[in-house]
Write a structure and sequence with these properties.
Layout (H helix, E strand, L loop, with lengths): L1 E3 L4 H8 L1 H5 L5 E5 L15 H9 L5 E6 L3 H7 L3 H4 L5 E5 L4 H12 L7 H27 L2 H13 L6 H10 L12 E8 L5 E2 L2 E2 L1 H10 L5 E5 L3 H11 L5 E3 L7 E7 L3 H8 L2 E7 L1
Parallel strand pairs: 1-2, 2-3, 3-4, 5-8, 5-10, 8-9, 10-11
Antiparallel strand pairs: 6-7
Length: 284
């Protein structure tokens, strides 16, 4: 068991959970969202979100993310949390939790009772990647003036997925934009992908035809909103309608094959405009 908390909470949790560890819970990872990963970091950086993702990417690990804020409160300022909560092996508890909550949550995750949303994970990974690009762009000016900082900067850029020579990596970071992303090119994604403006929402209201179509397709399907607008703006609007499903940019999906697409464009125009390949296309 690992506890990513600051003192004295860390020690208190270690004492309280000793019986659980003795019963074999060595795969449990408790992470505080507000954990300060360095002296220069702030609790409002919520570095624990990145740490929780790193652990949750290993399916053998059981992760319980905790915060002094409520789930909804944290979602309101760090919306990418919604994607993190889609992991099958991760759950959220508000601090301070009762010991029984930690135990029952661990047992629930251990038994595999939580259903995973693959599309939600994709949305979260893209959100975190965009955040990383923003940090890299901000730090580049300082790195170019200091060779030692440049070594660290290049290492971080490579971990984010940028490849090439130093010059090529710098140019890729500077020029990266969503419209040329195609992060899922060549992949097949299961689920129902619904266009936002003009399809799900028409004249500022939810399209009842789409609502009915969602019900017809069944609750066992994963649903995802797709748009050529900034997903953050779409997310804000979706909240007003009470929707909580993942959101992906159509530009991120360039070159991907999608199981079902629902859009107001004719299929030929949709394929040409976005480079997306629908297995089944429903025009509304």
């Amino acid at each position: 068991m690992e506890i990513i908390f600051e003192s004295p909470v860390k020690e208190a949790l270690q004492r309280a959970l000793t019986p659980l560890v003795e019963n074999g819970a060595d795969d449990l990872y408790l992470v505080c969202a507000e954990y300060k990963s360095s002296e220069s970091s702030l609790r409002t950086d919520f570095n624990g979100l990145n740490t929780a993702k790193e652990y949750a990417d290993d399916p053998k690990k059981i992760v319980i993310l905790m915060s002094f804020m409520s789930k909804q409160g944290l979602l309101s300022i760090r919306p990418e949390l919604a994607g993190l909560l889609c992991y099958k092996n991760l759950a959220f508890l508000q601090l301070p939790p009762q010991l029984v909550q930690i135990v029952t949550t661990y047992q629930m995750l251990k038994k595999g009772e939580k259903k995973e949303s693959t599309l939600g994970k994709f949305a979260f990974e893209i959100e975190m990647f965009e955040r990383e690009v923003s940090i890299l762009r901000h730090d580049l000016h300082y790195a170019e003036a200091d060779p030692e900082r440049m070594v660290l900067w290049l290492d971080r850029a490579q971990k984010a997925g940028f490849t090439g020579t130093e010059k090529e990596i710098i140019e890729k970071v500077r020029n990266w934009e969503r419209k040329t992303a195609g992060r899922f090119e060549g992949k097949y994604l299961e689920g129902v992908f619904i266009d936002f403006q003009g399809t799900l929402v028409v004249d500022g209201k939810i399209n009842q035809k789409i609502q009915k179509k969602i019900e017809e397709l069944g609750s066992d399907k994963q649903f995802c909103i797709i748009s050529d607008s900034d997903p953050k703006n779409v997310q804000t609007k979706l909240k007003g309608f009470g929707f909580t499903c993942p959101i992906l940019s159509k530009f991120d999906l360039k070159g991907a094959e999608l199981e079902v697409v629902i859009d107001d464009f004719p299929e030929e125009k949709f394929r040409k405009e976005y480079g997306i390949i629908p297995k089944k296309y429903i025009q509304v």
